[in-house]
Amino acid sequence: MDETQKARIEEISILLDADFFLFNFEILPPLDFMFINELSKRKNRKTLYLILTTEGGSADSAYRMMRFAQARYEQIIVVIAGWCKSAGTLMSVGAHQVMMGPKGELGPLDVQIVKVDEMDEQKSGLVAEAAFEKLQQEASKFFLQFVRDMGNSGYRVTLKTASDIATKMTVGVIQPIIEKLEPVTIGEDYRSNQLAQAYAERLNLHSGNLRVTRTFDALQSLLCGYPSHGFVIDFNEAKQLFKHVELFSDEVAEVVSYAGRDAELPRNRRTQQSPRLEFLNADKQAEQYQETEPSKENTAKPRKGTNGRTRADNIPRDTES
């Protein structure tokens, strides 16, 4: 950003009494602690606009980050200009308001679990549940079809005899498939999904932004109401889930435009990109110091990390700005 853009962000920050923080990367350790450290360094304003761009990550890290932000700010607004998936959706549950642009999209909350003996490949925690549901449907179809076939075969058999034969045939088809399922793995998947639910419930206690009626539960919909992990939850869909969802205001759209493509396209390890975590506006405490001490020029050393940019030393870097 050039100096004119930075000055304009300062004007908007003062006007809204808000901090603007950009987070773009997978939500993983140690970035959660780096996020907390950045928020701890400064005298906070009333509201945090969190421009969040991510493919997802750790539910533990997402919960840790949002809980800390909830403790630091009176109001949190998650700004979604592009991709904000999985763990990013979990963080959005903890926001008092969600603001979305025309290309903004959330995703379901089903936890992604690393596959055994696979390098950086994951599966949804709902796979085992879906497998059981499908097997149940197929077993019922097999049984009914076997009974009908015997009834139409021309042989005189009682319903009891037909049912006994159909049961044995159904068991013979389904049992080998059931035996391939691992109980321990299924239990781990179940507990992982329970983790996402427990975190979301606690974050929503503070924000109160999820819709709940007698006939609809937004959290259950996010957990298991979508057919795939990559399902696009756009603005219109988000309005069905959250009480407070708005399109970008003119001021927020302006700040997002200054953040560039990092507000829309998520960085990741696969492409050896570095994370971007930074306040886009100056420290409120530094501004107050300048106002009360105008005569002491060049006497105070600039604070370390004044521009807010933070990079993880142990994560590959790129040359993007």
Please give a structural write-up.
There is one protein chain. The chain has 321 residues and is an alpha/beta fold. Among the domains are: 3-107 and 232-292, 2-enoyl-CoA Hydratase, Chain A, domain 1; 127-184. Helices cover 46% and strands 12% of the residues. The protein has eleven helices and eight strands. The protein has helices at 3-16, 31-40, 59-72, 87-93, 127-151, 159-179, 183-207, 218-224, 235-241, 250-259, 284-292, and strands spanning 18-24, 47-53, 75-80, 97-100, 112-114, 122-124, 245-247, 276-279. The strands form two sheets. A six-stranded mixed beta sheet has the order 7-4-3-2-1-8, sandwiched between helices. A two-stranded antiparallel sheet has the order 5-6. The longest helix is centred in the middle third of the chain and has 25 residues, at 127-151. The termini are close together.
The CATH superfamily label of the domain at 3-107 and 232-292 reads: 2-enoyl-CoA Hydratase, Chain A, domain 1
Largest sheet: 6 strands, mixed
User: Any idea what the CATH architecture of the domain at 3-107 and 232-292 is?
Assistant: Alpha-Beta Complex
Estimated radius of gyration: 26 Å
H-E order: HEHEHEHEEEHHHHHEHEH
User: Quick check: average pLDDT?
Assistant: 81
The helix content is 40-55%
What are the segments in which pLDDT stays under 50 over at least 5 consecutive residues?
A: 113-121, 295-321
CATH level-1 class of the domain at 3-107 and 232-292 = Alpha Beta
What is the percentage of strand-forming residues? 5-15%
Molecular shape: elongated
Which structural class do the helices and strands define? alpha/beta
Continuous helix count = 11
**Annotation, overall tally of beta strands:** 8
Q: Largest beta sheet: what is the strand line-up?
A: 7-4-3-2-1-8
Distance between the termini: 9 Å
CATH topology of the domain at 3-107 and 232-292: 2-enoyl-CoA Hydratase, Chain A, domain 1
